[in-house]
């Protein structure tokens, strides 16, 4: 056991640092790297694109992509090392992770030669930004329950419906959308996947206001949006297979970043300041017990990542333990933030920029819902990791249009 | 054995519920949340007209002269409605004057409370954390004025009279009443803007001692908080029950994988656990109401028990509500966050749960003839 | 709100006390009433029967039974008052609750005239003790999944199979058993109910040793046990309806007895004695927080009983809140006992007769399993109280013998 | 990045597992549980022959001279097997001699440990609760003898040498080694009779100070317990994983309502949560093993973290095991109770979870450059 790079890894890391040193600078102590981009500042988009182009032109944009599409054909460990290093430096927000991480690989697997040629290098260089259009108001956990329709109109298709929880529609050139093309088929069978030009007439983008007041996502409405059949990805009515590829890539993302935000160290600092029922809250063992349990889970997730990285470093497939991150991490953040609020007593009712517990507490429910709810994650672990049987399904073989509860 | 409310009391509850369904749909809480208003003035006036604001104030002082059983039922209904008015907080101040004020103070202040002209708040905390005797630095000086700063006073944005815990010139803790027109108010950016808290800076603000000033201020405060906790536990219960009922409707309505999500066993089991937590809270609330109405020696333990149970049920119900509404539950447009915010606001308003758990065990031990505190400070067990 | 009896209730209570005063004496301070009978002492059985006969002869045995069967036709509130009073006095253990509380009412509803005449008064007077034979090793939560068979043999039936978790078989004269008479029918349809003479040849009774070392229950084996068709209860293949009556009576039992055993007060005493990480454990707020939560649940259950009694006192049907007792109480006992063990530190590894935490902790899992597991209780509350839909069932219409997983 | 065991270490683990599957099926733990035996002597001899008892003892002292990575893997496998031998407890005493003993003591005692002739126990507690410096009353007198009574010494029934915390004539805390032949032993009626604890009364029992006696005894004890906690966390992890695996098999096999109970969502979700708790424990154990092997400054925090995580996972896994086996899980005949008992035994053996959580936060604060203790006692942070 050791935490050092192998010689090859160390060499690669040095290369990465050299590039970063040349073009930017280390973060100042206490300065945090930017979170995922959710705002609407066009200047930030431009800066992000410029940095991506620079990376691309120097071979740092898509390390794991094949060389034919502008990548370097490297392994996931190199990607992790690059990400670790990049996060130490002052760089713009990254608005390409959905495209490069999820949609690019989907096109590589299911796209036509023309689609790959047309899109992949521009996606990789950040010249065109991509977004994903899967979730719907009535189809979140059950993505295949979607009702957005596409009907043939000559050689084209006309899209009608609503997508939700979209990231970045307002600055993206392209989107990948999954829609229902055969409502008479069972739910997973009548879906088709398309590339859609986000500037097409008939698309309306409305930001979703979240419960914490922020707006990181959009509802996207489609009214008679025309898509050429050339932009179809995969066969007609075979879109579920395409979507699965995308979702798998989403879930395979490796948390090199770790837990950020309001955490055990913040709680210790706050508890040293705030009064408990007797003396300082840090002397209150009920508080201490909770902080201890938070640290156990938080450290456990960090070391679980090390186990995954070890497998990657050896060229092995990481174990299933990587699947626990979201299930453990999301409620953990909510509980830590709730204690942070509670420790402040009556004063906790006011938003506190000093510790940020209140903001974290208001944002926390979103993490338990986005990208697979806690419940979906538990299903996935139970079935795919533990091999427990699926529940009896009633919705798999019925014609989609015949099922109760479907808005269509 | 009669461990339930009377028919008259239930009728009053039904009237309150009907009134609030009409005048205080959830949209009312939202409208205050989205505005800069400190509360719904209209509903406050309505509450005065219904006699709610004077529920336990004697008729001789302009009140309705009901009892505490009626008071808690009104609080429960206001909780159900997420009513954006400072009912429980203000009632706590009126109750303090009722149980610890002089006759003259009762006559002077209580009619205003009953009429809705007086709105009270509890100005206790001066920093982050539990309010402890040793952390009180605000001074009530010999000239009858206050100097100091209070933070996070519940419903502080709407109030015009504060019950303040302070230290007199001899260092003794005292409770005083301060007119807030003469203080500097900073309305908080609240986690629950439908019931915003505020901070106050007192600098020569006139304030008079509550009562004749002979009783230990900390002891009086604990008694006031115990009584308020019972009333607020009913408010929390109402809020929790409403969150639960709406969640139940939602999981019957929302379909995934071809069936209502309420048919999935993991969700059913969580709802059963939540139901049990709600009933545990309700039973403890009922007992505390009985103890409050009879002002018996068991009140302190019953108040702690009801508050801990109701706080937990309300927090859990609101957290599950957001989760079980799914992605939509995280949006501003749905009402889930109103419950999430309110539950936390109420959990903090009379001091955080850890404080009440700690106090519960003190009382539990006393009731078993034991001293569990290990404390040296004499007032804490009062 | 008040906790006093109504005048009628007070009168009844006085009557009960007068009878008890005449025939026995109050428990000494600190003396606890006997728990449910689980031992094998024949002398204790005789004492219990003698007390029951005395009660019967004076009209105190079966208050809620109709007068025709030896009861007094009173309401449940009178039963509660009687039980409250009887528990204050020194009386033998009660070995009749399964018969009088569950099986008697079942016979009244489903039995023949001859069965009622033959059995009910003797059951009520305690002359003959009854037991129940429903659960099987492969059919606990899912009682209808049972595989004990009965085959016709002339006018009689022959029973073959095994029952488990039986209480009292070794001192009982009669048992009520449910068995499968038609394996080709769907699982709930091919069951039949019988009265069986527990002294019949072919019955073997073996005590079950529990994980805590105790033996309160039996396995009962049936090898060619002959039962006359006269002893059939209800129609052939209609036994499930009969069993449901019994199970409903089991679940309707009202907890007038409340929580006994290792509880919050014991924890307070122990925590005052034991050291915590700093000072006495009672000063440790992590311990205090747990005791507080235990008290909240424990007191909440007590007051929930008051709500139920209030409804009974008014002649109303109690609300559904009565359903939470087992779900809340069983894990609560386990958690309290676990803290009681934990507080003792290294010394906690030894059985401690002083506080009894270890014994309570070893016995606690049984309470979460007996009479409906936690999981079954949650299902019942979700479906019957909250009106949430049942899960899709795959086992309701198939022939029983065709189902996977059935031992037959 | 290499956060895993080496191929050689994994091979050692495989050998250990194969050996134990052959020699220590669950029936072995049961046979000790049902007898009056203090342990399985045969397995103990086997462990000596395999070199496990001398895993970290230098070859010069008769040991195998492996490292701590090997030691923890052996402990994990013994945990999986519910091995009825005092491996971890005895290893803790050997380790104490290794890190704090004099050269002479190492030479004198360690060969016996490696050969299995020496079996150590930790005689710390004198009453119910956490062992605190102020509660130590056992005296180590100037004449080199002990006087006092110890209770609940883990694996005390099997041991012949105790590491005792005592007070010397000047009132200073010291660690001493006592031969148990010269003490009065009371074997406990244990919650886990497969690994029975014992109490000891010392009355003139000869005992020698561990090491040269210059270091503070309490500080050395904390270091010894930290190191032992890492090893025992692996034992707990092995036990937890075995309970989990058997539960998984059972819920796949046991049918109710026409399908395996493992297909019911509520059960699936609990298994997922339990899986997560196990993996959290495993990752924390791995890190603690690394810290132990490297004896770095992060060891104290890592030990607390691993112990808290593993204790919780092991307790939860055993409680769920009984529950998910259904009624049969409550019988003596099934093995569930062996796990339920062992999990609790291990949770208490090195001090209860509350003590380790408390200590964890001390260390966490220190590692963030803060002092979180609010304690006055200097040795506690050591």
How would you sum up this structure, described in words?
Helices cover 41% and strands 13% of the residues of chain A. By secondary structure, chain A is of the alpha+beta class. In chain A, strand 2 (149-153) and strand 3 form a beta hairpin. Chain A starts with 6 loop residues before the first helix and ends in a 23-residue tail after the last helix. Chain B folds into three domains: 7-118, Butyryl-Coa Dehydrogenase, subunit A, domain 1 (Orthogonal Bundle); 121-215, Beta Barrel (Butyryl-CoA Dehydrogenase, subunit A, domain 2), CATH 2.40.110; 218-367, Up-down Bundle (Butyryl-CoA Dehydrogenase, subunit A, domain 3), CATH 1.20.140. Chain B has helices spanning 7-23, 26-34, 41-49, 68-80, 87-100, 103-115, 217-253, 265-294, 299-324, 336-349, 353-367, and strands spanning 120-123, 139-140, 145-153, 161-168, 173-179, 184-187, 198-209, 255-256, 259-260. In chain B, the strands form two sheets. A five-stranded mixed barrel of chain B has the order 2-3-7-5-4. A two-stranded antiparallel sheet of chain B has the order 8-9. In chain B, strand 8 (255-256) and strand 9 (259-260) form a beta hairpin. The model of chain B is unreliable at 373-382 (pLDDT under 50). Chains in contact: A-B, A-C, A-D, B-C, B-D, C-D.
């Amino acid at each position: 056991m050791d935490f050092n790079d192998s010689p090859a890894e160390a060499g690669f890391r040095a290369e990465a640092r050299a590039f970063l040193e040349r073009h930017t600078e280390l973060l100042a102590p206490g300065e945090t790297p930017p979170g995922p981009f959710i705002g609407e500042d066009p200047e930030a988009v431009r800066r992000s694109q410029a940095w991506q182009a620079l990376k691309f032109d120097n071979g740092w944009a898509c390390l794991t992509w094949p060389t034919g599409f502008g990548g370097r054909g490297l392994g996931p460990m190199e990607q992790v090392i690059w990400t670790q290093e990049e996060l130490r430096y002052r760089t713009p927000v990254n608005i390409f992770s959905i495209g490069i991480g999820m949609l690019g690989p989907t096109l590589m697997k299911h796209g036509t030669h023309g689609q790959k040629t047309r899109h992949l290098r521009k996606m990789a260089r950040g010249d065109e930004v991509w977004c994903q259009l899967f979730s719907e108001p009535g189809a979140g956990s059950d993505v295949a329950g979607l009702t957005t329709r596409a009907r043939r109109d000559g050689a084209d298709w006309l899209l009608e419906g609503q997508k939700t929880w979209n990231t970045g529609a307002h600055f993206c050139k392209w989107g990948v959308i999954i829609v229902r093309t055969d409502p008479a088929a069972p739910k997973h069978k009548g879906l088709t996947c398309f590339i859609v030009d986000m500037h097409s007439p008939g698309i309306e983008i409305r930001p979703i206001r979240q419960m914490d007041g922020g707006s990181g996502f959009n509802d996207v409405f489609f009214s008679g949006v025309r898509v050429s059949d050339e932009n179809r990805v995969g066969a007609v009515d075979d879109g579920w297979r395409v979507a699965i590829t995308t979702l798998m890539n989403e879930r395979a993302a490796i948390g090199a970043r770790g837990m950020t935000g309001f955490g055990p160290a913040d709680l210790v600092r706050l508890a040293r300041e705030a009064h408990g029922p007797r003396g300082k809250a840090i002397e209150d063992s009920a508080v201490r017990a909770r902080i201890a349990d938070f640290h156990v889970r938080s450290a456990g997730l960090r070391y679980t990542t090390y186990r995954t990285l070890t497998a990657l470093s050896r060229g092995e497939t990481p174990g299933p333990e990587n699947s626990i991150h979201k299930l453990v991490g999301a409620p953990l953040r909510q509980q830590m933030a709730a204690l942070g609020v509670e420790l402040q007593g009556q004063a906790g009712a006011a938003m506190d920029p000093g510790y940020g517990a209140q903001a974290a507490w208001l944002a926390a429910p979103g993490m338990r819902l986005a990208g697979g709810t806690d419940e979906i994650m538990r299903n996935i672990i139970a079935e795919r990791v533990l091999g427990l049987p699926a529940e009896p399904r009633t919705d798999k073989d019925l014609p989609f249009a015949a099922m109760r509860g479907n808005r269509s | 054995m009669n461990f339930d409310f009377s028919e008259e009391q239930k009728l009053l509850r039904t009237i309150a519920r009907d009134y609030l369904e009409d005048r205080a749909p959830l949209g009312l809480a939202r409208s205050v949340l989205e505005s800069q208003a400190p509360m719904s003035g209209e509903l406050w006036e309505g509450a005065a007209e219904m006699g709610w604001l004077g529920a336990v104030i004697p008729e001789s002082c302009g009140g309705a002269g009901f009892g505490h059983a009626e008071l808690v039922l009104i609080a429960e209904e206001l909780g159900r409605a997420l009513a954006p008015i400072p009912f429980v907080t203000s009632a706590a101040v009126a109750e303090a004057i009722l149980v610890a004020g002089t006759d003259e103070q009762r006559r002077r202040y209580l009619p205003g409370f009953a009429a809705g002209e007086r709105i009270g708040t509890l100005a206790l905390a001066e920093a982050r954390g539990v309010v402890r005797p040793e952390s009180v630095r605000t001074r009530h000086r010999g000239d009858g004025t206050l100097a100091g700063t209070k933070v996070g006073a519940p419903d502080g944005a709407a109030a015009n009279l504060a019950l303040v815990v302070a230290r007199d010139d001899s260092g003794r803790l005292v409770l005083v009443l301060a007119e807030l027109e003469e203080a500097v108010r900073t309305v908080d950016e609240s986690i629950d803007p439908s019931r915003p808290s505020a901070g106050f800076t007192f600098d020569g603000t006139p304030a008079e001692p509550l009562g004749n000033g002979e009783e230990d201020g900390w002891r009086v405060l604990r008694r006031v908080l115990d009584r308020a906790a019972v009333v607020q536990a009913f408010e929390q219960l109402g809020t929790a029950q409403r969150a639960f009922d709406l969640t139940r409707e939602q999981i019957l309505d929302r379909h995934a994988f071809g069936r209502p999500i309420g048919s999935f066993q993991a969700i059913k089991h969580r709802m059963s656990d939540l139901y049990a937590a709600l009933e545990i809270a309700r039973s403890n609330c009922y007992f505390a109401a009985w103890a409050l109405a009879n002002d018996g020696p068991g009140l302190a333990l019953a108040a702690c028990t009801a508050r801990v149970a109701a706080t937990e049920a309300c927090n859990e119900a609101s957290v599950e509500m957001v989760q079980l509404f799914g992605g939509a539950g995280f949006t501003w447009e749905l009402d889930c966050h109103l419950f999430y915010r309110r539950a936390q606001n109420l959990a903090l308003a009379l001091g955080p749960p850890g404080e009440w758990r700690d106090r519960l065990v003190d009382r539990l031990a006393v009731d078993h003839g034991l001293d569990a505190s290990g404390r040296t400070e004499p007032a804490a067990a009062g």
